[in-house]
Specification:
The protein is mostly beta strands. It has a single domain (24-145), classed as Immunoglobulin-like. Helix content is 14%, strand content 46%. It has one helix at 2-21; strands at 27-38, 50-51, 55-60, 68-70, 73-76, 81-86, 92-96, 100-108, 111-113, 125-128, 133-145. β8 and β9 (111-113) form a beta hairpin. The termini are far apart. 21% of the residues are buried.
């Protein structure tokens, strides 16, 4: 009986340890927010987006020179797709990635969305450093007016 109890305790310890080992410790985490309608400054106006469920696509870093854009959405990204992840109901996501530079897009009904660029023409570039989580917010605002 004593050995059975020790065995059960060991199995329980291993199960707990492996579930915490699956935590994401290096990569990208963030939130996706939806903006639609009038966001012009004025009395009673809110500048806050609403958390939204979306598919987030992580590509090798992608240049504006290599994509086709129509109506603020990208038709196709020729760079290598690295990973995808679904946000939760609050728009949150967390994904493990090796160190490197990536371009982050959301999947919309009529294409892919990203609206942040660096000085080199890269689309929504995000750098992942060893042992760090890079935090981002994606504001999907192609249907908003400012």
């Amino acid at each position: 009986m004593k050995y059975v109890l020790l065995f059960l305790m060991a199995v329980s310890f291993i199960a707990c340890k492996s579930s915490t080992a699956q935590q994401v410790l290096q990569g990208i985490k963030g939130q996706v927010l939806w903006f639609e309608g009038n966001f012009m400054p004025g009395p009673g106006q809110s500048n806050k987006g609403k958390p939204v469920h979306r598919t987030v696509l992580i590509y090798e870093v992608t240049s504006m020179n290599n994509v086709v854009q129509e109506n603020q959405l990208y038709e196709k990204v020729p760079s290598k797709l690295i990973k995808t992840i679904e946000t939760d109901e609050n728009g949150n996501f967390s994904i493990h990635l090796p160190p490197g530079r990536y371009s982050v897009f959301t999947k919309e009904e009529n294409g892919l969305f990203a609206n942040v660029f660096d000085g080199e023409g890269n689309i929504n570039p995000v750098t992942v450093k060893p042992g760090e989580m890079t935090e981002i917010t994606i504001d999907i605002n192609y249907k908003a007016v400012y």
